[in-house]
Amino acid sequence: MSETNRLLQAFNHTTHQVGGHGKRNLQVLKDALADLDGSLPSDMYGTGKVMEDFQTKMANFLGKEASVFFPSGTMAQQIALRIWCDQQGLKRVAYHPLSHLEIHEEDGLKELHQIEPVLLGDENRVIHLQDVLNMQEEIACLLLELPQREIGGQLPDYQELEAISAHCREKGIKLHLDGARLFEILPYYQKTAEELCSLFDSVYVSFYKGIGGIAGAILAGDEAFAQQSKIWKRRHGGDLISLYPYIISADLYFDQRLPKMEQYFTEARELASFYNQCQAVATRPLEPVSNMFHVHMQVPRAQLEPILVSIYEETGIGLTPYLRESDDHSCTFEVSIGDRYATIPRAELAHVFHLLDERIRAIRPLSR
Amino acid sequence: MSETNRLLQAFNHTTHQVGGHGKRNLQVLKDALADLDGSLPSDMYGTGKVMEDFQTKMANFLGKEASVFFPSGTMAQQIALRIWCDQQGLKRVAYHPLSHLEIHEEDGLKELHQIEPVLLGDENRVIHLQDVLNMQEEIACLLLELPQREIGGQLPDYQELEAISAHCREKGIKLHLDGARLFEILPYYQKTAEELCSLFDSVYVSFYKGIGGIAGAILAGDEAFAQQSKIWKRRHGGDLISLYPYIISADLYFDQRLPKMEQYFTEARELASFYNQCQAVATRPLEPVSNMFHVHMQVPRAQLEPILVSIYEETGIGLTPYLRESDDHSCTFEVSIGDRYATIPRAELAHVFHLLDERIRAIRPLSR
């Protein structure tokens, strides 16, 4: 068995796992349906009470005229950008070089919509006002991902967001929020979703990240935007006869977990500080601004994996199921805090990090 | 209340409803999950046992190298046509003028893929070999929908299908099967799915029509085709983190209802003959070739609706929840036979048609 498989296997055998809400298994759906009566009618091709009620609820929460449920954010966001491009008569948008659209969607935006992206700013930081001001190209829409997931979930200052929004409005550039983790950043900004979304013309939110649903997304904006997005949803093949398995679970877990976002945020900062106390380990960002962060360890994978496996086996606590080698002598992985974290005895967790620090110190001389 | 709403309301209050499997409600999903353990892991972005097992099962059933689960047929079929067009270097396909792609998808094929369709044959009949032979345009792919839903579910002779397939192979034209109701036509053709699909390069089947699942589709073909379709699925936003609610229900209801397709077919022919014995009523086709047909009644809607409402109320049996006015003096509606039909006492059903015939005869002199 490879070390990687050993790490995953050891992780799967732990009693406590530090990230997430729990296993992604059928129980998540069963729990969502348990209290509902079987007579609840399905939605039908975008209509029906179960869908319309949730769309109204989310439109209100986000402070937008209307919202539309989508099977995925990939679909919702391409469509948002397409609508704004068509409206502006300009097939160019701007987003971060590590945007989901650029690195995880097989170039759907280019292949299906012939929209050209301008990669704005630097891979290693968030987009700043100055990047927008310096942009040479004319664009129809600017997409901001808050938090910027691929760099550990970082955020610009709220004042900078306001300035970017004001600039876009002045220039007639539409501003779209990739809010895959929008709920998760509200505690840091100390803003309501409505306040934050008021800076944007359109907003996408996801229900299987911090919310922990099965799948699904909401796209919100003004009424005309929402209507057009339904036509494009049909074109993309996303206007299913029934989306209720996703809607029901999104709705239930939204109610359950939205009030816990502050807790996840606090716990993420606590966990990050545990990591940052270890030799050769740093989180990114150093102080999380949401429930997520990345961990960077200046230890070669071949040495780090046995350490982690030994700690998982001794303590029954699993830190990460995987390691990504960033170069020959360091590794990185992502952490997102959910319901599980609160169930782990703090003293035991402190002991895990004591062991981690000790064992990294023991091998570090060998690695240089 | 409008007559239309009265008809729907009267239908909803009947004890027996003639078409379909039952109400599309949450119970359909609850039943599909009931016997499964909550520990069953979710699929993950197109991978995982629950998805891969079902894909293998369907590839075997359809006699293709590989199959890929999709959230919708709209997505699956656009992608099939796109793959064949790209492979042939020609963005033109042919299909029936009433193809789902032409009338129900908001022109997704044209808007997202810039594929130009040739509308082959006549609105009022299926595509024949002669239509294919007469076609002036070069095409990358021919799509055949079996049965042709919008004309009551009609089929070409099997020998004609074989001839079309042979012609396409000779000319290097890819042949794609819109098999939204493929399972439903096997009893008529007296062929296995594998035999029928061997005439085609790619095949789409649906799981919420005769099978009665929640939603979802399979696209099958050779290994390279399947691999490409996964890339396009990601681009379309259909590569969800979890599709298991659809897969599980598709799998369960496939096992339950595939063996009943012969029964539905027989029942459809019985029901059609009941209709055809009534004054001014004819089914299309006269003898169904699947579980479905259309009913055409040469009676004005304003006169037909009160008749139907009175029969529903007196007998507790509902024939159709809606009527579509085809012109000033006739109406039409669609019937698909499912599990419900077998539960209706035959003598009571015969009585319904006795009443229908009697009451149409009574008003027919007034309508001319």
UniProtKB/TrEMBL annotation, chains A, B:
<dbReference type="Pfam" id="PF01212">
    <property type="entry name" value="Beta_elim_lyase"/>
</dbReference>
<dbReference type="InterPro" id="IPR015422">
    <property type="entry name" value="PyrdxlP-dep_Trfase_small"/>
</dbReference>
<comment type="similarity">
    <text>Belongs to the threonine aldolase family.</text>
</comment>
<dbReference type="InterPro" id="IPR015421">
    <property type="entry name" value="PyrdxlP-dep_Trfase_major"/>
</dbReference>
<dbReference type="GO" id="GO:0005829">
    <property type="term" value="C:cytosol"/>
</dbReference>
<feature type="domain" description="Aromatic amino acid beta-eliminating lyase/threonine aldolase">
    <location>
        <begin position="43"/>
        <end position="296"/>
    </location>
</feature>
<dbReference type="GO" id="GO:0008732">
    <property type="term" value="F:L-allo-threonine aldolase activity"/>
</dbReference>
<dbReference type="GO" id="GO:0006567">
    <property type="term" value="P:L-threonine catabolic process"/>
</dbReference>
<keyword id="KW-0663">Pyridoxal phosphate</keyword>
<dbReference type="GO" id="GO:0006545">
    <property type="term" value="P:glycine biosynthetic process"/>
</dbReference>
<dbReference type="InterPro" id="IPR015424">
    <property type="entry name" value="PyrdxlP-dep_Trfase"/>
</dbReference>
<dbReference type="InterPro" id="IPR001597">
    <property type="entry name" value="ArAA_b-elim_lyase/Thr_aldolase"/>
</dbReference>
<protein>
    <submittedName>
        <fullName>L-threonine aldolase</fullName>
    </submittedName>
</protein>
